[in-house]
Automatic annotation (TrEMBL):
<feature type="region of interest" description="Disordered">
    <location>
        <begin position="91"/>
        <end position="123"/>
    </location>
</feature>
<feature type="compositionally biased region" description="Acidic residues">
    <location>
        <begin position="106"/>
        <end position="123"/>
    </location>
</feature>
<protein>
    <recommendedName>
        <fullName>DUF3817 domain-containing protein</fullName>
    </recommendedName>
</protein>
<keyword id="KW-0472">Membrane</keyword>
<feature type="transmembrane region" description="Helical">
    <location>
        <begin position="21"/>
        <end position="42"/>
    </location>
</feature>
<keyword id="KW-0812">Transmembrane</keyword>
<keyword id="KW-1133">Transmembrane helix</keyword>
<feature type="transmembrane region" description="Helical">
    <location>
        <begin position="48"/>
        <end position="65"/>
    </location>
</feature>
Amino acid sequence: MAYGTRHTEPYGTHPRRALRIAANAELATLAVLLANLATVHLEPVSSLTGPAHGCAYLFVIAAVWRTGEARTATRLTALLPGIGGLLALRRLEQPYEQPNQRTNEQPDEQPDEQPDEQPDERA
């Protein structure tokens, strides 16, 4: 979009962009928290990164649950801390194939073809 032009697309046409940003932020902040915990454990790092991680985590959950095309498994995947948002995005981007519906049509029946039995010539 060029500078000075109006945004004419309706609001919310790119909800996955915000979800992708939040999912990456959630994973990055979790990595920083765990690295800080495993090494020097600086209090300022924890007090800054902890709330940021919590906000990103909640945003990911809310964004996935608000997506109309998210199935139950995708919504539950978003609840996984750290990687759940990225996994939910992956599930949202995969096309959903409906399972085959049972129909009343019977499959074409083919007669059982048995090979002609040849008598054993070794006697």
